[in-house]
Amino acid sequence: MDHDQRARQARGRPAPAGGRRPFAPARRVLGAAILALGLALGLALGLAAGNGTARGGEPAADTAPRRIVSLNLCADELVLRLVPKERVLSVTRLAADPVGSTVADLATGVPANRGLAEEVVPLGPDLVIAGAFTTRNTVAMLHRFGIPVMELTIPQNLDEAYAQIRLVAQRLGVPERGEAMVGEIEAALAAAPPAPARPPRAVVMRPNGFTVGRDTLADDLMRRAGLDNVAARLSPDKLGQLSLEEIVTARPDVLVVDDEPDAPPSLAREMMAHPAVVDAMAAGRIASVPTRLWACVGPQLGEAFIRLSRAAHGAAVAVAPAPSPVRTP
Fold first, then answer.
1. Number of helices and strands (H, E) in the chain?
2. What pLDDT, on a 0 to 100 scale, did the predictor assign at position 329?
3. DSSP per residue over 5-58, as a string?
């Protein structure tokens, strides 16, 4: 007895004779229709792309995508900063949330999606930008329909972040805007004072108790700013968790939190109020770096770096060894 027959018996309905499903022919017709639609759409998109190539195989003057859909918050932020809204068909619902997004104002008026293929396909996009680890079913379906998809990985350091900005800007046909964005971040880093000679110990506490480990963009920013990321040694995961006991034992000089007035309730806030943490941080500093400033690639990384640098230098002064006493004759 197959799964369909067992399900019918569980609902009190007799299984069809011979094990056949009564609507199998209709389903086959519908499946064929969907497949035909997908092939037609893929052909249409292929012809449209072909119209962007001049005779002799030379690319036309303007082949940049004009109907862009984003399925990832980090892609939302890059797309909305790099091209006019008129070229953006849809971004994720997260883009309009000012708590987690740095482009909530730019997302105003842009249709939002939930990352579903049935939302994207009817729009007829000429480019969809998605994350390499999100909306995988949708991405697979878009590939079947022949819709161009660009997948973004997660940068592990600032150099990879710069490369991603340039790659997306090039694909969107605005390389000069990508270079300007990279220049904005580089200027913020160059304006900060050199990292202290003795890096203060720091722990990042994000919502739900998550921290940032080694080989991450956040870890690279902390190191460049002059902070010793304790979790890079204690947590084996890039986005692992530290227990209350580990934080207290490490006695960090700086606790980096998303502690803005509009930040949502989180385990990090609860842990900060724990007497053990309060005692451990008695001589330390609290640095507020909202997660939205360094969760994605963009000019906001400069602001995150500035906050980290200030925390590093403030803590370095607090934990600097006292000068040796000088005996008076």
1. 13, 9
2. 42
3. HHHHHHTT-PPPGGG--TTHHHHHHHHHHHHHHHHHHHHHHHHHHHTTB-GGGP
- What is the Cα–Cα distance from 33 to 219, expressed in whole angstroms? 50
- State the pTM of this model: 0.76
The average pLDDT across 135-157 equals 95
Tokens of 119: 């939302």
pLDDT, tens digit, 9 for 90 and up, residues 262-320 = 556 666 667 767 777 676 566 668 888 999 999 999 999 999 999 999 999 987 654 44
Binning pLDDT at 50, 70 and 90, where does residue 242 land?
A: confident
For residue 71, which of 163, 167, 148, 179 has the smallest C-alpha distance? 148
User: Where is pLDDT greater, at 196 or 265?
Assistant: 196
Q: Any idea how long the chain is?
A: 329
DSSP 135: -
3-state secondary structure string, 252-278? CCEEEECCCCCCCCCHHHHHHCCHHHH
Question: N- to C-terminal Cα distance for the chain?
Answer: 101
Q: How far apart are CA 142 and CA 95, in angstroms?
A: 22
Instruction: Give the residue from 300, 270, 262, 209 showing the smallest Cα distance to 97.
Output: 262
Burial 36-61 (b: 16+ CB within 10 A, else e): eebeebeeebeeeeeeeeeeeeeeee
Opening angle at CA 180, ends 174 and 181, nearest 5: 95
Residues 301, 164: Cα–Cα separation, whole Å: 13
- Reported as type and span, the H/E element at residue 91 is strand 88-92
How far is the C-alpha of 3 from the C-alpha of 8, rounded, in Å? 9
What domains can you pick out in the chain, each with its CATH number? 63-153 (3.40.50.1980), 188-319 (3.40.50.1980)
* pLDDT tens figures, 103-122: 999 999 999 999 999 999 99
Among 241, 208, 202, 242, which residue's Cα sits nearest to residue 225?
Answer: 202
| Distant-in-sequence, close-in-space partners of 10: CB < 8 Å, separation ≥ 6 | none
Mean pLDDT of the chain: 79
